[in-house]
Amino acid sequence: MPSMHDRIREDILNKERALWTALTSADPAPAVQKLCNPEANMIFPQMEVLTLEDPSQLKAALKPPFHRFDGYQLDDVRTIVIDLMAGTVTYKVRAVRGKNEYRATGCTTWSQASDGEWRIVCHQETLL
After folding, report:
1. pLDDT value of residue 57
2. Measured on CA atoms in the order 50, 59, 88, 125, is the torsion positive or negative?
3. Among 13, 26, 78, 117, which is most exposed with the fewest C-beta within 10 angstroms?
């Protein structure tokens, strides 16, 4: 039987993949918003810090074709359990759209909400 920390690592890694699936979709804002804690910060390259204080700000910033890729790959993934209700995922991401490539490091901190769902507290990407 996997340890509690192993289950947390698996859960937040699955949520990170769900985040990247949303970010690379045609219209990411609704799915990303569902993954976020109401006080989440989203830090993308060459953009102001996004919050959910004004949902229209997130929707405008993530409007299509934001991060519209044909596919992505996470490498050098590390999941860090902070405690039983929080964890962080760090990684390198490589995404492609046609001949264009996006390479960055990423980090997302997740917390478990009262409903048991993991939610984003802070997500950051740094271009390589």
Report:
1. 86
2. negative
3. 26
